[in-house]
Write the structure tokens for this entry.
Amino acid sequence: MVTTVNRMKDKIVFITGASSGIGEACARKFASQGANLILNARNVPRLDELKKELETTFQIAVFLLPFDVRDRNIVAASLKSLPENWKNIDILINNAGLVIGIDKEFEGDLDEWDIVIDTNIKGLLTMTRLVVPGMIERGSGHIINIGSIAGEAAYPGGSIYCATKAAVRFLSDGLRIDLVDTPLRVTNIKPGMVETNFSVVRYRGDKQTADNFYKGIRVLTGEDVAESVYFAASAPPHVQIAEILVMPTNQATGTISYKEAIE
Ligand code: 8X3
């Protein structure tokens, strides 16, 4: 007889940046496997819609915690305000992140870079700092950071973004070291080209340029990345998937990909 283990049933999974892209796809994937979700993002109407959809479709519970991960005080107050039955977070998916512009390091807008650095690095760190102590106390937990292939090597126009994703890599490695004598696990998921609203933001709202970037190559979807996240999360407790680098078949590195010429 074949028995299956449902490792997600009744777990509490906290996802930042859950209103679109990889975060939203993770919400759907974990909900479909029976996890209850705490969803965070800034877009409250979108979160409301998602909660309704997931609770109806998958008979799970969703708790919304809208905030901007850059606002440390609000993050702390929001986490504190969680009802007792939602406090025991099993999996933290640090997904909130963005890039604005493709400017050179000596030409871009420092205020935009503040937003990118504060979200991608300091927001992730705030969440980790506030959620991990409870996991240690309970003797179980998994922190899954959404890094990027951009953290492997710098590429043209990506200076700041690449630096933030290199930081995610080292924050993940450092946390894994700090938790080595605990049952907690740390995973860094590093996607290559993924077609989500992320690229529209990168091109400052220019959807045409974002769409053109993906012409001639079948890129990943948020759902493809969510499968890797789920794979790491559902591994047996003694297995720590430290990193996953996942990219389209026709991508080889952050700068090398093959695109078919399209008329
Ligand atoms: C985004 C992936 O390929 O644009 O994290 O650097 S890429």
About this structure: The longest strand covers residues 185-191. The two ends are 55 Å apart (CA to CA).
